[in-house]
Amino acid sequence: MYHVANRLHVRYRFGEHYSDGDSEIIEQDAYCEVRQGLIESIDILCSGHLSEQGDEATAVHHYDAGDLGCGSGLPEEFRRQINAIPIGSVLEVVARDPAAKEDLPSLARLLGHRVLSVKISSEGGTVVAVPRGR
Hints:
Blueprint: E1 2-4, E2 7-17, E3 23-35, E4 38-46, E5 50-51, H1 54-57, E6 60-66, H2 74-83, E7 90-95, H3 100-110, E8 117-120, E9 126-131
Parallel strand pairs: 6-7
Antiparallel strand pairs: 1-2, 2-3, 3-4, 3-5, 7-9, 8-9
């Protein structure tokens, strides 16, 4: 939970598992007007009931960004790559730009994803692992 201007923003995600083995994931963002500690009005944005994609949803996808940096297209390419994988999958990005160690984790969090790890590869590049959160 955090505030956006004078509105309270709440995000939550839950899964439904059915007896036939299917499962779905639902994520919602709620923006609330709060007065005197009570919710006066609420606007909800729902992802809908999305089928979880089994093993594919937890797969690790690799992207070699080469020498791309923030000034040469890395943010745009990161967005494209993370949006191309299923929710719950992990995108592992290898970048040789030294600034990527700071820039990629910040960008991932700004876009609503969490960062699993930031490591330096044996070749000297930065390896950032980010699960797609939305």
